[in-house]
């Protein structure tokens, strides 16, 4: 009888979970995966806090990418240090910055406090931006830009708080603290007019033109706070949105020209991204690694990074704790053969460029 009851209730429970996820509720997706390098005994830890990006979200409520960016970085570390590296991802898909800060970084601080932790990384603010974008797109009448300002201010507040908290609580053995900033998902799709009208002009506004400076300010402060507070900053915006060749003939590789420059002002950075170099920005669904070759960095949902090498359990039925041999045991020139072919591989390689030479 109990079996029959459970059999009738399970589909309803699944429908409830699916329904709440569709409405934007959060989903814990925690994974611990160890890169088990042959012939080694030392074991160190990388701890990653964040939302669906670091989670390796792929649309499933039960699994995620095995090699999301932090685990890709763990593979690079394993080769560099000739050691086993445990990649601990404490993530919450759908979480805004305040949620990542309070319920992951603060509530789950024990992971970064472990004596074998050597790298602590986090990302946040993507869902603040996505929710503000959805709110703005649904507006009619006079445009209310306040929702964008609120998202920006919340991002700045909790990025700074997260760095301060990690600085105060991470193990003294941590060698690297690093934040990942935001790429622009849906860059092409946002090139449309709003339904609301600007109060000054009475005209509709271009969504992409409206959103880009706000995202640029978020990214500026992630990297600027990193500079001020002893963190490194992975510039995912530059890595995803700029081609790996010089498309405008200015003598600079686009993905390098777009990068945050330490010490520059907010106004300088925002002008460079939203005006001076705007013509070089490309939707990351078509990331050009040369003038004639490109790869898709964004999944079909037009939000989350692409990945390879399978999935692990991560969702409503718990998360995976497992081990596996590295896919690559050495890296020619510091890059895997697929470093620029998938979104998560590109982000993981970007993280690896800051890895210390020894643990």
Observed structural traits:
alpha/beta; disordered N terminus; eight-stranded mixed sheet; three-stranded antiparallel sheet; globular; Rossmann fold; 359 residues; 12 helices
Query: The biggest beta sheet, please?
Result: 8 strands, mixed
Specify the structural class. alpha/beta
Q: How many separate helices? A: 12
Query: By CATH's scheme, which homologous superfamily applies?
Result: SGNH hydrolase
Low-confidence stretches: 1-24
Number of domains as seen in the coordinates: 1
Number of strands: 15
Shape: globular
CATH class categorisation: Alpha Beta
The pLDDT mean sits at: 93
Strand proportion, as a percent range, falls in 15-25%
Written account of the structure:
- Strands 1, 2, 3, 5, 6, 7, 10 and 15 form an eight-stranded mixed sheet that branches. Strands 4-13-14 form a three-stranded antiparallel sheet, with no helix packed on it. It has a two-stranded antiparallel ribbon with strand order 8-9.
- The longest helix is centred in the middle third of the chain and has 24 residues.
- Strand 11 and strand 12 form a beta hairpin.
- Helix 3 crosses helix 12 and helix 4 runs parallel beside helix 7.
- The N terminus is likely disordered.
- The protein has a single domain, classed as SGNH hydrolase (Rossmann fold), CATH 3.40.50.
- With 359 residues, the protein is α/β, with parallel strands linked by helices.
- It contains twelve helices and 15 strands.
- It is globular, with a radius of gyration of 21 Å.
- Helix content is 40%, strand content 18%.
